[in-house]
Specification:
Blueprint (H helix, E strand, L loop, with lengths): L17 E2 L2 H4 L7 E3 L2 H8 L9 H5 L6 H9 L3 H9 L5 H7 L13 H4 L4 H14 L15 E5 L3 H12 L3 E5 L8 H4 L8 H14 L2 E3 L10 H5 L4 E4 L5 E2 L12 E3 H10 L17 E5 L3 H12 L4 E5 L11 H9 L3 E3 L2 E8 L5 E14 L5 E5 L5 E4 L2 E4 L3 E2 L3 H5 L25 E3 L2 H4 L4 H20 L5
Parallel strand pairs: 3-4, 3-6, 4-5, 6-18, 8-16, 9-10, 9-16, 10-11
Antiparallel strand pairs: 1-2, 7-17, 12-13, 13-14, 13-15
Helix pairs in contact: 2-4, 2-8, 4-5, 4-8, 5-8, 6-8, 9-18, 13-14
């Protein structure tokens, strides 16, 4: 079938893939989006017009060669299709699941308005899963060793992208991870029902095959300082993420039963608290759970809580659904799973019982006023609209910032007012010579795809600097 003629059939409606039944999936942590069958993938790939100007590829932050890999998939050349993706991104199984394609490649598809875009993300995921499941994964070739050594701090998507790019160019790369599992936010933040751990581990395993060295349980800035790393490495990339939670600043936030999203998701995802007592980490949520926030982390928190078996989960968001930063698909999935949304609502105070446990949340209704600095209309409290919601536990998911340990122990490393490392957008270069940074430690909390984009840009700059003969 390799030579079968291309028959574009764009008028076929976009296939959104199969999903686990909402009633069943709220009881388990199995993957919700179940992907394409082979027939689904071939039919969907036939919709691609293979546009010469490649608007989808140009819209992708990491420039995946979309028309080419889709065409190879259509011809059932699965290994070649995966290799074509690997030319610019080594993590298609991850990106195919968690990247917001609707804002990038699929938004640029010429079929979008009339027939719905080609399901590029689902085709990317199918390609990656197919070659993994059929033992067809072939790591890209690496250039001869250059003799240069680069340290990557953190093992999240940004550092993994740097490691992949630099190893392909022949540099020796060591990745340092503070936790006991590699993947960063991919492992501790994103639930398995969105991103199975086998996917993350297989992507890390491919980097190992390429020669990347991984070290865990090493907190840079505490176990080893950046200055100490500079003695052993020619260049350093800081991709340590944003693991410091942002508090609400509301009275009662110290009550038992109140979690930051970081703690809650780490307990559930990394420590597998949902398997307690088979695992060592317990959890407490009670019968009534409240989640505060409107981003993907809030959706993940609410959906994880729902799977732990409470009577109800309520999500509070101070704007309307239209303003929610979370992916539309994640909001829809949460609603299907029975999570109650209270829009235009903000918490005022958390009240506890005589034992110091959370009992109820005092809330107030909001209305949208004039636009704020972000361009969104600012929520304004409605006078006299206070009300209460009973709650045994509450998860605060309103943002996060970088852990300050590296910034505090690295003299001369410039940071902004939020504690994020200051770095050039196009190169990742920081205020210190030979030190680069990107991802959430610079952005303060963004998408996996943008973290990867930062990593690729920094890798290019690091390589050019190394090959110029100038060391840090």
């Amino acid at each position: 079938m390799d030579n079968k003629p291309k028959k574009p059939t764009p008028s076929i409606k976009q296939n959104h893939g199969r999903h686990q039944d909402p009633v069943e999936r709220r009881k388990n942590f199995d993957e919700v989006a179940q992907g394409f069958t082979l027939e689904d993938a071939l039919t969907e790939s036939a919709r691609c017009l293979n546009c010469k100007n490649k608007p989808c590829e140009n819209a992708c932050p990491v420039n995946v060669k979309v028309p080419q890999f889709v065409d190879l998939l259509y011809k059932e050349q699965f290994g070649e299709a995966a290799s074509k993706i690997y030319e610019t991104s080594l993590f298609p199984a991850i990106c195919g699941r968690v990247c917001p394609q609707e804002k990038y490649c699929e938004a640029a598809c010429v079929l979008k308005d009339k027939f719905g875009p080609v399901s590029i993300g689902r085709l990317e995921r199918f390609t990656a899963d197919y070659v993994r499941e059929h033992n067809m994964v072939t790591p890209p070739p690496c250039a001869p060793d250059t003799g240069f050594k680069v340290a990557c701090v953190g093992s999240g998507p940004s550092s993994l992208a740097v490691a992949a790019e630099l190893r392909k160019l022949g540099h020796a790369v060591t990745v340092f991870e503070a936790l006991h599992e590699f993947g960063g936010v991919l492992s501790y933040g994103i639930p398995t029902f969105r991103l199975p751990r086998v996917v993350v581990r297989s992507e890390v395993a491919m980097l190992r095959k390429m020669g990347v060295r991984f070290l865990k349980n090493v907190m840079i800035g505490k176990s080893i300082t950046i200055d100490e790393l500079k003695k052993d490495f020619d260049m350093i990339y800081i991709g340590s993420g944003a693991g410091l939670p942002s508090p609400m600043g509301a009275p009662g936030e110290d009550l038992v039963g109140v979690y930051s999203s970081n703690e809650f998701l780490t307990r559930v995802n990394l420590m597998e608290a949902f398997k307690f007592p088979a695992t060592d980490t317990p959890y407490y949520i009670g019968r009534k759970v409240v989640v505060v926030g409107g981003g993907n982390t809030a959706m993940d928190s609410a959906r994880c809580a729902q799977r732990l078996g409470p009577d109800n989960v309520t999500l509070l968001y101070r704007r309307t659904r239209e303003e929610m930063p979370a992916r539309g698909e994640e909001v829809e999935n949460a609603m299907e799973e029975g999570i109650k949304f209270e829009f235009l609502t903000a918490p005022l105070e958390l009240e506890g019982d005589e034992k110091g446990r959370l009992k109820r949340v005092k809330c107030i209704r909001m209305q949208l006023g004039e636009p704020d600095a972000s361009g969104r209309r600012k929520p304004v409290p409605v006078k006299g609209s206070e009300f209460y919601i009973e709650a045994d536990s509450l998860v605060v998911a309103i943002g996060q910032s970088p852990n300050p340990v590296i910034q505090q122990t690295t003299k001369g490393l410039a940071v902004d007012k939020h504690g994020c490392i200051t770095a050039e957008e196009t190169t990742g270069k920081t205020s210190l010579d030979g030190i680069y940074a990107g991802g959430d430690v610079v952005r303060g909390g963004a998408t996996v795809l943008l973290a990867m984009k930062d990593g690729k840009a920094a890798a290019k700059a690091i390589h050019e600097r190394l090959m110029s003969g100038v060391k840090a």
